[in-house]
Design goal:
Largest sheet: 8 strands, mixed
Shape: globular
CATH superfamily: Nucleoside Triphosphate Pyrophosphohydrolase
CATH topology: Nucleoside Triphosphate Pyrophosphohydrolase
Helix content: 10-25%
Order of helices and strands: HHHEEEEHEEEEEEEH
CATH class: Alpha Beta
Structural class: alpha+beta
CATH architecture: Alpha-Beta Complex
Number of strands: 11
Number of helices: 5
């Protein structure tokens, strides 16, 4: 079983090399378009999310949240803790840490940053999301924000490697319309859209890592 230390030591230098964003994103993009022009992306709202790694029960985990129901395009969806960059944020890393503190009660001082994945542009909300990867050396005691977070979902990282967890499902949109889209299935949870794109790039990176080749 891979350890958090092994994963950190692999990812830190790997994230400095060429990433697999477009290839990985294309596989799970709901509308099969991930190559947007620089002009379109330049007008997007900057945002970031935190991919948090920690070790529990001899396995590496990360954390997703199910957002509360509200009048918006991402109501009830499952994603990483995160949100838009505020004027007071010095960087997108600070944004991810601030949002994680607000949404799941994680102190920014306790998180060590490893690097980041490829940006993801979300056309429906005009957000450009930067996934920031960090870790803590303890098992976190999460405190979900009751207004924004319906549920905290702890995901074993190795679950990304099982092919049966990547499926196609009919998704009910906030507009009451439906689409059939690629998604990850973890127990009862359906993860699609931008979060699926981020998870798939992470899956591609893990598949490169020999320590994970036991699936």
């Amino acid at each position: 079983m891979i350890s958090l230390s092994d994963l950190k030591n692999y990812l830190e230098p790997r994230l400095l090399q060429k990433l697999l964003g477009s290839k990985a994103h294309q596989e799970v993009a709901p509308y099969r378009n991930v190559d947007f022009t620089k002009d379109i992306i330049s007008k997007a709202t900057l945002s970031s999310v935190l991919i948090l790694f920690y070790e529990k029960d001899h396995a590496v985990y990360t954390t997703l949240i199910q957002r509360s129901t509200y009048n918006g395009k991402h109501s009830g969806q499952i994603g990483f803790p995160g949100g838009k960059m505020e004027k007071t944020d010095a960087s997108l890393m600070i944004t991810a840490l601030r949002e994680a503190q607000e949404e799941i009660g994680l102190s920014p001082d306790e998180v060590k940053i490893i690097g980041q994945l490829s940006d993801v542009f979300i056309p429906v909300s005009n957000f450009c999301v930067t996934p920031i990867i960090g870790y803590v050396s303890f098992i976190p005691s999460f405190v979900p924000d009751k207004r924004e977070v319906k549920e905290i979902i702890e995901l074993k990282v190795t679950d990304l490697l099982f092919k049966e967890n990547l499926q196609h499902r009919t998704i009910q949109l906030s507009s009451n319309s439906k689409i059939k889209a690629p998604c990850f299935i973890f127990d009862k949870n359906i993860v699609w859209g931008a979060t699926a794109l981020i998870l798939n790039e992470l899956r591609y990176l893990l598949n490169e890592f020999e320590g994970f080749n036991y699936r």
